């Protein structure tokens, strides 16, 4: 089985690396006449001319100069006060055109009202008003975790109870999977068939994240209370703990913990545990519950 996994990963890496060209410094890449940057803002200065498509993943794009191509931000915003000869697209964000902004193509905004966890967008805008959207997104996240648990309770329990022994390996698996997914999405962007497949890949990725995040909430809730609690209570404590971390702004610690640990672990835990194993399980007695299973 390990040989099969190694062969699949090797072939996937080979296929994904073929289209890639030269690598620039500061996290910027040239991929078939395109400039791509990950989780860092892209600035096209006033006197600069970029003769290529500009793509940002997880950050914003500021155009004060000229871009002879398309401008696309995934999970961020696009601010145009220069000239874009192609289309300006924001997926999960907005396109803002200033008084001097010129877009000869079309302006597209996709999922601009959606609130996606861990997507770093509109980071420079501060608000002193009560953030109702944050409360709604927290409630929605809690509901999605409850749904995931109810659909696959034994799988979620299995993943949660294995975190103690598989923490390091799950983290490594998470980083590796994220890198492969990013490379896959970039490759798919440059083909018509690939663009059609992007939503499918994104849905699979989000489902995997939700399964792993739910198991982490179960784990945190159980370890935090250290007493007999229901799975729903454990998930509620886990989601609340995540929100507390997300609101820690001192030195960006909350954001760093999410990016470096919570996000990759949520992806790595299902991958490492093979989604909690889909093999036939020996059913526990009807008197067994979540607390009894934790000790199995």
From TrEMBL:
Transmembrane keyword on record: yes
Alphabetized UniProt keyword annotations: Membrane, Transmembrane, Transmembrane helix
Positions of transmembrane segments: 132-151, 172-190, 196-220, 251-271
Source organism, top-level taxon: Bacteria
Protein name listed in UniProt: Polymer-forming cytoskeletal protein
Species, as recorded: Clostridium botulinum (strain Kyoto / Type A2)
Source organism phylogeny: Bacteria, Bacillati, Bacillota, Clostridia, Eubacteriales
């Amino acid at each position: 089985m390990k040989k099969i996994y190694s062969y699949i990963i090797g072939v996937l890496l080979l296929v994904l690396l073929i289209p890639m060209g030269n690598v620039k410094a500061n996290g910027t890449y040239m991929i078939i006449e395109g400039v791509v940057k990950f989780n860092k803002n892209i600035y096209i200065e006033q006197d600069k001319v970029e003769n290529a498509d500009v793509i940002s993943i997880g950050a914003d794009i500021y155009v004060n100069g000229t871009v002879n191509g398309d401008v696309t931000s995934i999970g961020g915003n696009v601010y145009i006060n220069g000239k874009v000869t192609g289309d300006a697209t924001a997926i999960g964000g907005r396109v803002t055109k200033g008084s001097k902004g010129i877009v000869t193509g079309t302006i597209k905004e996709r999922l601009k009202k959606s609130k996606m966890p861990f997507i770093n967008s509109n980071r420079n805008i501060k608000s002193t008003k009560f953030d109702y959207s944050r409360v709604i997104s927290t409630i929605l996240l809690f509901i999605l975790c409850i749904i995931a648990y109810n659909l696959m309770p034994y799988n979620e329990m299995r993943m949660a109870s294995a975190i103690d022994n598989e923490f390091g390996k799950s983290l490594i698996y998470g980083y590796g999977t994220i890198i492969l997914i990013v490379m896959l999405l970039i490759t798919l962007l440059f083909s018509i068939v690939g663009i059609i497949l992007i939503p499918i890949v994104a849905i699979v990725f989000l489902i995997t994240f939700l399964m792993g995040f739910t198991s982490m909430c179960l784990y945190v809730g159980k370890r935090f209370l250290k007493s007999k609690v229901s799975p729903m209570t454990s998930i509620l404590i886990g989601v609340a703990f995540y929100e507390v971390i997300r609101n820690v702004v001192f030195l960006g610690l909350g954001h760093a913990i999410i990016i470096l640990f919570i996000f990759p672990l949520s992806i790595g835990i299902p991958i490492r545990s093979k989604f909690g194993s889909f093999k036939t399980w020996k059913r526990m007695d009807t008197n067994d519950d979540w607390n009894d299973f934790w000790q199995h």
